[in-house]
Design goal:
Strand order of the largest sheet: 4-3-2-1-5
Mean pLDDT: 85
Number of strands: 9
Low-confidence stretches: none
CATH topology of the largest domain: Fumarylacetoacetate hydrolase, domain 2
Number of helices: 1
Largest sheet: 5 strands, antiparallel
CATH superfamily of the largest domain: Fumarylacetoacetase-like, C-terminal domain
Helix content: under 10%
Amino acid sequence: MKIVRFVSKRKGPLYGVYDPRRPEVANPIEGDPWNPRSVGDREEQIERLLAPVAPVNILALGINYRKHGEETALSAPSEPILFLKATSSVIGPGHPIELPAAGPDQVDYEAELAVVIGKTAKNITPEEAPDYIFGYTCANDVSARDW
């Protein structure tokens, strides 16, 4: 099931179930957007796609790809490196990426797999982790390396 966040001509933002064969419409999720069983039958015209989520937090994992660590001369950490990213850094499809005026040549980008967590999680086991995943989306991680 593909879920999108969008603005329609009548409402927005909405979450809806999306069928790529009909890219102009989505079936809005009624009530809790994290419970896709509550999908309505009505269709809404998609006026504009938004970022997949309006996150409360963005938790990132550093040096999680061995080859990238080697490219940057950083060794693999013994423990995961976690850090937060600004929620204002999330933009939707087709929105421009603003580069810093000072040092735009220091900007780097990486394709990332973003995992959307659908409910509060704390001290869960690896076996329980899949129960907390709402879905996945692609992300373009753009960072100024000199900051």
